[in-house]
């Protein structure tokens, strides 16, 4: 876990809260490592997938050669190891959760619902699970302190899901219909996706799970970010000794950052064109980006991209930090600084995991 004194929350004009460096920070530095407050599968509850391709607890892709373990009660949820099964039975797949999920997948009411509502049902089940933990009320307060306000469509979702799900958890008082509506609104804006592993020949990577990471979600967006997120869902061993889990989110700096400078990530792959970025940011996050790159690209002349002379700074940035591996387009960030504090010249892609040596950092 990075030192929490590295960043402070500040009000940023036109953006709400944001994270600002409390001291000069170095490119490659890990500035945040965080576990999810809520993590839930992106699969619809109905129809149940014929065979799951990932562990229902840690979301690692299940090996095809070795056998996996199933929940002894429902047989519908699969785990990569006995260790994951046993952790799941005490948390993400406790007996009350198992019964709730089974009952929901057999519910004719839910079966008629669109995919999005079925995934929301998973979130609301995870919310009830959070309400059963010892630190329930502070964790729910944390969730409700995030950005996002319910609109009419979320209020309808909340009413439907409250009636369907609350009775399965004996109507826990902490989770009223209003709390469900608020939480759904927070989830819509603040959840991060955990993705299938990169495959150069396969289809687009699909989403395995959604997670809410309350500190990481304080980062605002920039189309030329100075930090980016990494996760190692399929490559990290869960090691109880250092307390790191494979579902942890890691935020690493792409460039040096001055004290007082805002640290931003990109909410999607940075290579996307202006029109696509503009649409995603408005439709999914409700804002118009005013970053330097958007200002230039709003009146962009495409020919400039091939001009090797006086190219805009963001074009140099993209050439350097967009991964050029086939069908990737992820963001590359330097590895953490070396022991003598000098910057690493090795860049790692946050999407395909490729490494590349660079001559100089901009
Ligand atoms: C995940 S939250 C980030 C934290 C948020 N600013 C807060 O106050 O909690 C995403 C929301 O922050 C705001 N935001 C993020 N980046 C922004 C930007 N570049 N310009 C304007 N608003 C931004 C938008 O309201 C967006 O829906």
From TrEMBL:
SMART domains attached to this UniProt entry: SET
InterPro entries referenced in this protein's UniProt entry, alphabetically: ASHR2-like, SET_dom, SET_dom_sf, Znf_MYND
Leader sequence residues: none
Gene3D superfamilies the record matches: 1.10.220.160, 6.10.140.2220, SET domain
Domain SET span(s) in chain numbering: 1-268
Any matching Pfam family: SET
Entry keywords, A to Z: Metal-binding, Zinc, Zinc-finger
PANTHER family in alphabetical order: HISTONE-LYSINE N-METHYLTRANSFERASE, HISTONE-LYSINE N-METHYLTRANSFERASE ASHR2
Protein name as it appears in the record: SET domain-containing protein
Native source species: Stylosanthes scabra
């Amino acid at each position: 876990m990075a030192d929490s004194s590295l960043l402070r929350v500040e009000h940023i004009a036109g953006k709400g809260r944001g994270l600002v460096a409390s001291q000069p920070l170095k490119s490659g530095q890990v500035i945040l490592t965080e576990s999810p407050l809520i993590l839930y599968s992106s699969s619809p509850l109905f129809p149940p997938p014929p065979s799951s391709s990932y562990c229902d607890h840690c979301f690692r892709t299940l090996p095809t050669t070795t056998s996996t373990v199933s929940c002894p009660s429902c047989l519908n949820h699969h785990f990569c190891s006995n260790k994951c099964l046993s952790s799941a039975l005490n948390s993400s797949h406790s007996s009350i959760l198992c019964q709730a999920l089974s009952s929901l997948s057999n519910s004719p009411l839910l079966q008629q619902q669109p995919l999005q509502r079925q995934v929301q049902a998973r979130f609301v089940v995870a919310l009830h699970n959070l309400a059963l933990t010892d630190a329930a009320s502070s964790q729910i307060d944390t969730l409700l302190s995030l950005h996002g306000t319910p609109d009419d469509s979320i209020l309808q979702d909340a009413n439907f899901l409250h009636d369907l799900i609350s009775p399965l958890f004996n109507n826990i008082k902490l989770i009223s219909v209003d709390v469900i509506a608020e939480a759904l609104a927070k989830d819509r804006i603040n959840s991060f996706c955990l993705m299938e592993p990169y495959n150069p020949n396969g289809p687009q990577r699909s989403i395995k799970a959604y997670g809410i990471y309350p500190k990481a979600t304080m980062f605002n967006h920039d189309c030329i970010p100075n930090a980016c997120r990494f996760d190692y869902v399929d490559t990290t061993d869960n090691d109880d000794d250092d307390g790191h889990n494979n579902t942890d989110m890691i935020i690493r700096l792409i460039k040096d950052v001055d004290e007082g400078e805002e640290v931003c990530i990109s909410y999607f792959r940075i290579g996307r064109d202006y029109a696509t970025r503009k649409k995603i940011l408005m439709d999914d996050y409700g804002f118009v980006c005013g970053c330097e790159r958007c200002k230039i690209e709003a009146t962009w002349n495409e020919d400039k991209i091939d001009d090797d002379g006086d190219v805009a700074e963001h074009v140099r940035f993209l050439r350097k930090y967009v991964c050029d591996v086939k069908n990737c387009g992820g963001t590359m960030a330097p590895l953490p600084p070396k022991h003598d504090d000098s910057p690493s010249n090795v860049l790692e892609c946050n999407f395909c995991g490729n490494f590349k040596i660079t001559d100089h950092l901009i």
